[in-house]
Amino acid sequence: xxxxxxxxxxxxxxxxxxxxxxxxxxxxxxxxxxxxxxxxxxxxxxxxxxxxxxxxxxxxxxxxxxxxxxxxxxxxxxxxxxxxxxxxxxxxxxxxxxxxxxxxxxxxxxxxxxxxxxxxxxxxxxxxxxxxxxxxxxxxxxxxxxxxxxxxxxxxxxxxxxxxxxxxxxxxxxxxxxxxxxxxxxxxxxxxxxxxxxxxxxxxxxxxxxxxxxxxxxxxxxxxxxxxxxxxxxxxxxxxxxxxxxxxxxxxxxxxxxxxxxxxxxxxxxxxxxxxxxxxxxxxxxxxxxxxxxxxxxxxxxxxxxxxxxxxxxxxxxxxxxxxxxxxxxxxxxxxxxxxxxxxxxxxxxxxxxxx
Amino acid sequence: xxxxxxxxxxxxxxxxxxxxxxxxxxxxxxxxxxxxxxxxxxxxxxxxxxxxxxxxxxxxxxxxxxxxxxxxxxxxxxxxxxxxxxxxxxxxxxxxxxxxxxxxxxxxxxxxxxxxxxxxxxxxxxxxxxxxxxxxxxxxxxxxxxxxxxxxxxxxxxxxxxxxxxxxxxxxxxxxxxxxxxxxxxxxxxxxxxxxxxxxxxxxxxxxxxxxxxxxxxxxxxxxxxxxxx
Lengths: 356, 230
Fold this sequence. Notes:
The complex is a heterodimer of chains A (about 350) and B (about 230).
Chain A: H1 3-17, E1 21-22, E2 28-30, H2 31-38, H3 40-45, E3 48-51, E4 55-59, H4 64-74, E5 79-88, E6 100-109, H5 114-128, E7 134-140, H6 141-149, H7 155-163, H8 168-178, H9 186-192, H10 208-223, H11 229-239, E8 242-244, H12 245-256, H13 263-278, E9 287-289, E10 303-309, E11 319-323, H14 325-331, E12 339-344, H15 346-354
Parallel strand pairs in A: 1-5, 7-9
Antiparallel strand pairs in A: 2-4, 3-4, 5-6, 6-12, 7-10, 8-9, 10-11, 11-12
Chain B: E1 2-7, H1 10-22, E2 26-30, E3 37-41, E4 46-51, H2 56-62, E5 67-71, H3 72-78, E6 86-91, E7 97-104, H4 113-127, E8 131-135, H5 138-148, E9 153-157, E10 173-178, H6 182-186, E11 189-200, E12 202-207, H7 214-229
Parallel strand pairs in B: 1-4, 1-5, 8-9, 8-10
Antiparallel strand pairs in B: 2-3, 5-12, 6-12, 7-10, 7-11
């Protein structure tokens, strides 16, 4: 057994000793669920294979989705799970990144005290990676979501922004358009002026009523006043929060005056800071970035964190995790449960420990 | 011996032969019409390998041919990190084709990738599945749409007659190669204004990984000087 694998099983046993149940989801996962959740982006990251009987299968790109699925189907709550095994990621842009590596995870499904559950996961993971001089970065996707929900604009615009929280460039382009910072595209103006006619027959599945509905929506949107400069400034200030946790919290509390919609989300960060502190984490030294986690997988919707090896910017995070309540809703067929979890890469642990 | 890979049939082969002919190098197919053997005259130390244009990228990347003629589109689609494996030596001025995204002309509300994204979101909500885009250029299209920030779509594989997939209701939009746009118009499709993914043309590529002997190196230098001169 390789050192990394020994380390992986030791970590899993450690998590079992902490009260987690060991689970072992299959390596081959049905592709349709993952594709439905993540779209084409997952195809760029995961290996897809087929067989005539079961159709498209994916080599598991992570454990979270199958573990959530298993819990939503059969699990009693509260529940704590752990697992150790390979995940597979296509690497088309960087031949130096591993396309197969071990992950050990710890996932908590518990509705009693989300802040305590966040702190439990973070503390267990940092404890398991102790002595490696890792830098912790934390964030909270829920704050940005709350800020978008609190904007003084139409539900349609809010929905568009929420949909693109994980695509920062697109998100910025939408904000620029909604605030009038970027001009209306020429063809859009022509359409709104009623000058986009065609005598081509309609082909395909998308119906005339769908086209008309979108044109109506564009007319309504054109009548919508631009996002105010004050709100845009607040949002920019929020996106730029990057401090140690106490200072970040102070800045976000100040922003609550102008963005009252984020108050509940900021209070959740308060509660988490207390829970982390109670677990012995030095929150005064813990970094917090409001934009952290926006380019990761789409399922995190609250607390997010990553542990990075200092002086090794070439390495991916040694551990990462977060809260994914919405994913349990998507997979729960009417059920939902607050859930948070994280993974460690034992291969990187071994590599860093072996480094002089 | 320098191995030169050239498309084995059709206009692409004829145009390639003409292009080399103008530079004093005569390529010919030998034997019967069905036999993929060829000869090179006008330069020593070069042999002709006839193969499908779609196989040229793979053969270059494997180092089994030193030079090859194929479209930019196929190199970019089939070879990740293509710059590390092949080097473009000459754009040959024919085989022009654009890889584009097209939607039904009747979609008066869609002209930009931004519109496509919004239409895809509404389509998914209404139909319960992602808006389907038919293509054979999966990697190029996916990278392009990711950069453009388009979500809620799915690529469906189409290896031919791609323009027909919309009318057949197996896709809502397409991403394909077009030269004149005639087939698109005949199928009542239009190109998105910002939907140009890649402008492709026939190009002579050099493999960066193929083994070259001293003699080969001299031949290659001689050949490339001839090509540059004209």
